[in-house]
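TASK: fixed-backbone design
INPUT:
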């Protein structure tokens, strides 16, 4: 498999494929603008660091485990075709199955700007069809350079409409959770998932002093993570997404999870997720497609 992948899709000086000790296949991207790694299982982008930054922008837990049919802690998991718990089937995996099943490479190339492009398609199986009995193609394209662009495309190839929930559940590397804020969601309504579920409205920038799990709805706004300790801003610009999820587990929940990099790895990560969730699930009509696009860039100050 590795030889075939490198022969067909590898790009000298940009992209090669390796097999991890776990047996999973990893795409390694390294060009003059930046570097990244992506696990073919789940089409899971694990890391990204532009050359302008001394510290990665996308965070991967030092305790992250790579294993067959298991999700990876950190990076940018693909949540699809539902976000959160399945509405009717409690045995189905949270955030859908896309992040733990096989994807196959369908294209690679070099952008005119010099960035590296890699596209993958979700591989259907009897198990996935049991959970999602709809005809469709699901593709993820990543473009790695000084910026990181991700495009999640859902094409309805069947005769019936369907509704999806989705997210790019991106973990960002930060200096310390107590010294960051998120701008761009001022005045937006959000569902507060901590201690129940209630609808609130954001006042001012988002700061962090405890567990935070919020789904901001009806917003396509660009968000900016202001990181005072690392002296940088991470910009999150999106289209085709009308929800933004902001999440940090804080100490008690992090200790229960066990793979966030003990003892204080959770303090160095923050999730700002570009999504279509809850009120903003997307109807994909037969014969049409929906694309969620997000682009990240980091600016030092």
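OUTPUT:
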């Amino acid at each position: 498999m590795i030889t075939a992948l490198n022969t067909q899709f590898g790009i000298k000086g940009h992209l090669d494929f390796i097999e991890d000790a776990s047996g999973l296949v990893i795409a390694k991207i390294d060009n003059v603008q930046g570097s990244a790694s992506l696990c073919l299982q789940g089409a899971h982008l694990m890391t990204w660091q532009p050359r302008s930054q001394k510290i990665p922008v996308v965070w991967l837990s030092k305790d992250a485990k790579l294993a067959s049919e298991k999700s990876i802690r950190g990076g940018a998991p693909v949540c699809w075709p539902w976000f959160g718990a399945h509405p009717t089937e409690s045995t189905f995996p949270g955030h859908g199955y896309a992040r733990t099943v096989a994807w196959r490479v369908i294209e690679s190339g070099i952008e005119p700007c010099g960035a590296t492009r890699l596209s993958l398609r979700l591989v259907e199986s009897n198990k996935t069809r049991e959970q999602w009995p709809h005809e469709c193609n699901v593709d993820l394209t990543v473009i790695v350079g000084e910026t990181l662009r991700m495009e999640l495309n859902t094409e309805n190839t069947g005769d019936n409409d369907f509704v999806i929930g989705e997210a790019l559940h991106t973990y960002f590397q930060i200096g310390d959770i107590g010294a960051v804020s998120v701008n761009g969601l001022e005045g937006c309504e959000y569902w507060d998932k901590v201690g129940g579920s209630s609808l609130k409205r954001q006042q001012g920038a988002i700061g962090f002093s405890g567990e935070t799990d919020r789904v901001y709805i009806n917003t396509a706004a660009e968000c900016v993570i202001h990181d005072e300790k690392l002296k940088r801003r991470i910009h999150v610009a999106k289209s085709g997404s009308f929800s933004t999820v902001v999440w940090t587990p804080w100490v008690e929940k992090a200790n229960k999870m066990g793979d966030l990099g003990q003892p204080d790895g959770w303090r160095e990560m923050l999730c700002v997720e570009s999504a279509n969730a809850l009120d903003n699930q997307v109807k994909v009509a037969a014969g049409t497609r929906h694309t969620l696009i997000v682009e990240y860039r980091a600016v030092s100050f």
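COMMENT: The chain has a mean pLDDT of 97.
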